[in-house]
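Today's session is about reading a structure prediction critically. Students often jump straight to the picture, but the first step is always the sequence itself: look for stretches that repeat, for charged clusters, for runs of hydrophobic residues. Only then move on to the predicted structure, which in these notes is written as discrete structure tokens rather than atom positions. Here is the chain we will use throughout the hour.
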Amino acid sequence: MPPLLLPASPSLSLHFAGAAAATAAATAASSSRRAMVAVASAASRSSSSSSFDASAFEAERLRLDADARASMETTAAGAQAEADPRAWKWKIRKRVWDVLEAEGVARNPRPVHHRIPNFDGAAAAADSLGRLDVFQNAQCVKVNPDSPQKQVRFVTLSGDKKLLTPQPRLRTGFFSALESQMIPAGCIPEACTSVGAAKYGRPIGLDEVIKVDLIVIGSVAVDPSTGARLGKGEGFAELEYGMLRYMGAIDDSTMVVTTVHDKQLVDDIPVEKLLIHDVPVDIICTPTQVILTNTAIPKPQGIYWEKLSPEKLGQIRILRELKRRIEQETGTILPCGPSENLPPTAQRRRRGW
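Below is the predicted structure for this chain, in token form.
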């Protein structure tokens, strides 16, 4: 069934049925949820605004961002040079990044390469999303922390909804939960930044009992005809999605939406080459249109441990704790993926780990 395209307009209101729920293994899900209850919150840092060191947080975030982008640049170059199976993804990403820069629609932070790219019209795309029934009816919305989705976070908090946003690259914790009543008057715009979310948000762990009604995800490229999506290449959106599945916070019926520029719409993402953990999107909002993809791509059912390299696992404390607890609960050693040769810039400092 072809995607349904509707022009963006102030009066836009859509009703969209959720995808049919896929059958999950009940025993495994039950074991996973019991394991989650045993996981202590990974974010032990106080979020009190009076003690929060915003400058130190931002300096560390920028350092990690620079390291990660350098790592992805090296990975992308190596993938294409060595005919890596992931090379086709990097070619599409580079093409989109190049177009956004060359045609003057890229916005800060620049360059947009190796980022979820910010774009001219990001606020308009976010406002169109905010008029959707699926957003209006949501009580809790999970939104990625990237620049082009800042307005989505603002619309969420301004609409008295709970905002769930991941701490950048899951390095310092897991998710921050924010609600408007937690934020001082006039500080909602600040709370929509990475620093503000950490400053005013309440850190949560995998033991949190929460229901997420809508997921907003950043994209580099997305195919409107299939709902296939490419991120920037680090895989954090997939990990976040998988952990929410393990928590029982989402299921197959939970809508996944992305906001992108029209120039990020592509028609050459081969569905047959997508991996089991790749997250498809149900709705695409651009500055000019809303697209219902009617995606038939299955949504991930959790974390696929056999795809996680020891190096990737070593970067994310909350994942290591989750793996340990599940293994203790089930008495079974979870599988691990093949080792990666991460470039030096990807070797994160492990202070306090």
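Discussion point for the tutorial: The mean pLDDT is 82.
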